[in-house]
Amino acid sequence: MTQKTQWKPARRWGVGVAALAAVVVLVWAAYRPRPMDVETATVTEGRFEQVIEEDGQLRLQHRYLITAPTAAQLQRPTLKVGDAVQAGDVVAVLAPAASQLIDPRTRSVLQQRVGSADAAVAAGRANVQRAQAALAQATIDAERSAKLAQDNFIAASARDQSRLAREAAVQALKAAQAEQNAAEHAASEARAALGRAEPSGGGIPGREAGLWSLKSPVSGRVIKLHKDSSEPVQAGAPLLEIGDTGAMEAVIDVLSGDAPRIATGAAVQLATGRNQPPLAGQVVRVDPVAFTKTSALGIEEQRVNITVALNAPAAELQKLGDGFRVDARITVSAQDGALLVPSAALVRQGEGWQVFVLQAGKARARAVSFRDRNADSAWVKEGLKAGETVVLYPGSGMKDGQPVKGKRAA
């Protein structure tokens, strides 16, 4: 009985100790610091590029504008935008322009002009006949005088006068013939003016005849139609534009402050659309003048146009077109073998920068310096080594030595 009495208190004490230990473990597990889930990345060595990203558009290197060489009536075009043409193909046809409508009074005046012109022609013919008769008489007199002078019946001076009279008759005949020709031309002009005033049952005179075909100077595609129907056009009026879509370039406008950093020959990558491979190119010209452009936020900016030559086959460019939008990535400088850390890992610390390095499950703050940086990464100068793991997007709440649980960024 004595032994049984002594065992019960010892057993109760052991159970109490165990319960207290369990409570302590539960409290420690409940309040101990839990590792923070963070995204991580590895410090690597690679190519560092300083780039300028802007948008622009494609344009044809050469475009040809077909214009009307004279006032005429344009026949309805058969070409559409995008149609392929070869050098020498007919791209537009012009017909003589229609005459203006003439009132009855003007028509009567024109009819009287025709009558006057016919009378002048008749008078010219009569003058020619009179001059011919005078020439015939002068010729007979000259021949007779020559024979008489040969036989010494008249003086030599009389013979010379007859010869000169014949020459005068020849010139008078030529003058009369010229006057007759002038009268006939004037009559034809008067009849033509009257013919334009008279109604015609067959439509506009000369519409089917005298067509003027305009031909393409180059092989390419129709990129714009200025006239898409039959209509009167004036001299110099634009009709259509032709260009080779296989020979294009890109025009990128950048801030005037960035333009001095861009050198001729700089590499450029152009994105033309979703799931499309980028086009490679290089800068061939930086314009020496700037222009004002209002941004999407309503801010006026000074911009400079950069011309980029495309290093792509013509067959690939045929899928694109004039004025297509592109996103450009212009390489300003590049360095191979640079030590790179993601820009998302950098945290401002006073006047400098720091990163959090993952070591033994904890984030350790470390000061770093870099030579240059871009939107994606920084070129590290001091503070990191290749292969170390850094915390991305650490935020202001992260402290040195804080337990973390890293997960590789996708």
TrEMBL record:
Keywords: Membrane, Transmembrane, Transmembrane helix
InterPro entries the UniProt entry points to: YknX-like_C
Positions in coiled-coil regions: none
Superkingdom field: Bacteria
Record-linked Gene3D superfamilies: 2.40.30.170, 2.40.420.20, 2.40.50.100, Helix hairpin bin (1.10.287.470)
Biased composition (Low complexity): 181-198
Protein's UniProt keywords contain Transmembrane: yes
Sequence intervals crossing the membrane: 12-31
Domain YknX-like C-terminal permuted SH3-like, residue spans: 339-405
Family matches, as Pfam families: YknX_C
Region listing for Disordered, in residue ranges: 181-209
Protein name stated in the entry: RND transporter
